[in-house]
Amino acid sequence: MKTLFESTTIGSMNLKNRLWRSATWMNMADGKGHLTDRLEKVYLDLAKGGVGTIITGYAFVLEGEQPNPGMLGIYDDSFIPGYRKFTEKIKAEGANIIMQIVYGGSSTSFQPENRVIWGPSAVPHPLFKVVPTEMTKGNINTVITAFTQAAARAKAAGFDGIQIHGAHTYLFSQFLSPYYNRRQDEYGGSIENRARIICETLEAVRKEVGPEYPVFIKMHCSDDWEEKGLTEEESLYVALELEKRGITGIEFSGGNLDTQNYPNAGPARSKILKPENQSYFAEKTARIAEHLNVPVISVGGHRTPEKLEHFLNTTPIGYFSMSRPLLSEPGLVNRWKNGDLGKPRCVACGKCWGEDGNVCILDRKQR
Ligand SMILES: Cc1cc2nc3c(=O)[nH]c(=O)nc-3n(C[C@H](O)[C@H](O)[C@H](O)COP(=O)(O)O)c2cc1C
Asked: How many domains does the chain have?
């Protein structure tokens, strides 16, 4: 019988429990993407609150290319000393700290008119309506190099690993989707071609950081978007290709942002108070995980520890990550560990986002 609170290892990483904080953009970094005291405190509170492994909010790999304000950056070496001090503090509290790295692209409402925004093809994002510039092969190489350098910086700064952001309609997940990716060259068409940029990035990153350094990816188990999106079968194909190229583990999210036609089909869903509506990607994720050898982390609507232990003992999912519940209640993991299995404070109201920082609405008035 496996439990949420037993310790495990993934390669060189020791994990004191099976609960992770999934990447969460806090909108608290400074204008250039550097840490602030306020943001550092968020991570320290999470580490003190018992979560075994923390993935940072997404960090942008090319200067000026950021889909949101207040994001962390990792686009030059000036970040390394600050992050080094930061990772030491988090690790001293007993948590692992992994940096998520991203190229955003057209999934943005942040100053889109002032920036060059690349995408697989020049088609509008269904939610943000931003039309990116179709990438040349030179642009693709620039992005791959930027990810590789970002990974090297994260390693030098003491992060326990990195996570490539391949989900949520940011650039890499757009390449996987037949809607966003209409390319006729070797980066479009078949799933083999649509996955090429991610495979090449992983190969380049691996070469840079070595065979042992933990390199994860967050990707979709399915876009739930019929012929426009990545299907479950295609997701399995991509996962197997990444496995061949040395991915350390895969976090499966999912969904699409075609909110007009598919309301509440995104990665962070509402109406999940009832346990049967929770853990909404776990069944698909489990079906994919049956065919994989690397550790699988499931994200999306996890709220009930008994339900997670059920998945843990009946499927190959080994880890569960949460965003909103820990944004609202950083001490949730210790609470569960200490036997109080009551519901999370988060009710998935969808109001975490704020211009002066992403905090639970229940805490807003107190500031
Ligand atoms: C405020 C906020 C910021 C988020 N930022 C990121 C991010 O930086 N990278 C990412 O992959 N997902 C991000 N997500 C999505 C979460 O990691 C997660 O996939 C989603 O919220 C579902 O999990 P949950 O039900 O535990 O919240 C964010 C979600 C929220 C609510």
From this structure: 1
